[in-house]
């Protein structure tokens, strides 16, 4: 196994162990010492991957940026509307798999480091802007609205969907919440 893969696996192990401890004992009651002892690693190893405890929660946003790049590279869909829905659908899978993680991540992100998370949101916005612009440039999509503004609205719908789903509990379908809002907004984005 490559060294890079081992590092990636260790970071994921630290992340998942931390999340498990946060759920069990509460975020404020879990120390870095507790995390490293549970993982069986040195404190320095933890800090090599996560500069502060808060960065464990921010890791979810970073992994979503990696995921979106993988999804975009694998996609064959040419229709921009369907392409965007596929991108968002793949991103929602993370939350569907770890539903209770969402509430913890959102509350701690807001509380701890919105400045840090804003970098992930900016990257997400840039990627969506590029996807939309690419469709416009290739003639596959027409709109009277600039790609960066369309991307802003879509990022807003994405986070609104997640927050709505989080507040309602995991009983509602996250993708359905998003698709309902997406369809309403799409009518105003697409050129008639």
Task: Provide the descriptors you would attach to this structure in a database record.
Arc Repressor Mutant, subunit A; 9 helices; 80% helix
Account of the 3D structure:
The chain contains nine helices and no strands. It has two domains: 1-50, Arc Repressor Mutant, subunit A, CATH 1.10.10.60; 53-189, Orthogonal Bundle (Tetracycline Repressor, domain 2), CATH 1.10.357. Helix 8 (147-168) packs antiparallel against helix 9. By secondary structure, it is an all-alpha fold. Keywords: DNA-binding, Repressor. Residues 31-50 bind DNA. Residues 8-68 form the HTH tetR-type domain.
Query: For the terminal residues, how far apart are their CA atoms?
Result: 53 Å
Find the structural class using helix and strand composition: mainly alpha
Q: What is the N-to-C succession of helices and strands?
A: HHHHHHHHH
What's the CATH class label of the largest domain? Mainly Alpha
Overall, the morphology is elongated
The tally of strands reads 0
H/I helix tally: 9
GO molecular function: DNA binding
Protein name: Transcriptional regulator
Domain HTH tetR-type: 8-68
InterPro entries: DNA-bd_HTH_TetR-type_CS, Homeodomain-like_sf, HTH-type_Tx_Regulator, HTH_TetR, Tet_transcr_reg_TetR-rel_C_sf, Tscrpt_reg_YsiA_C
